Amino acid sequence: MISRLRLQAADVGMGMTSQRVRDRLIERLRSNGIDDERVLNVIRTVPRHQFVDEAFAMRAYEDTALPIGNGQTISQPWVVARMTAALLETGMPKRVLEIGTGSGYQAAILAALGIEVFTVERIGDLLRTARKRFRALGLHVRSKHDDGRIGWADEGPFDGIIVTAAAPALVDALSAQLASGGTLVAPVGSASEQSLLCLHKDADGHIEQRDLAPVVFVPLLSGLVDA
Length: 227
Ligand code: SAH
Hints:
Layout: H1 19-31, H2 37-45, E1 66-69, E2 72-74, H3 77-88, E3 95-99, H4 105-112, E4 116-121, H5 124-136, E5 141-145, E6 158-163, H6 172-176, E7 178-189, E8 194-201, E9 207-215
Parallel strand pairs: 3-4, 3-6, 4-5, 6-7
Antiparallel strand pairs: 1-2, 7-8, 8-9
């Protein structure tokens, strides 16, 4: 899967994208508790600098969130790694729904793992740019311009659901689209800080919930922009 990523020829040999810079990020993630080699490997491979504006490309391999326009951000690599590792904990999911496409980076990480990805974004402008990035990298990602709080019922249930925007409570419509045996990861809390919650639905439909880490996400909002 990963080898199918099309890296741009111009990137090769450029300092900001060099293997050494990426390896440094991987070491940092490792020292901050990320130990899933599948996740570390895919973060090493997917070119994060192609998911931010050129002005921020120099900082793409720092472990920090960066602006992506429209008042939104690409998540910090540690958060992407932690959420992805949580989704993979009970085995590789076949189909995952993401709410909040943003730059498309988290969706690209999942697609590069060989997962069938469905992603929903409310801001048309961001979604168009993300789609161009998926195409440029040869990644197959299904996407929709919609309010993600309703999920994607026609395609559910999903083995994994990842919400990359913060809400004061879990969204029932999304938990309902989680398959038995599936995992949902979502930031839940106030506007200024949230808990990264991980829900696992067992074969009987019972839900077990864990709190993975304190995080800060942009808010999950209603309605569409640029329909
Ligand atoms: N996963 C993204 C992170 C983007 S930030 C990445 O890897 O870059 C969160 C995104 O969620 C923003 O783009 C925001 O517009 C989007 N969002 C917020 N509320 C939403 C909703 N109700 N439905 C769909 N997308 C939403």
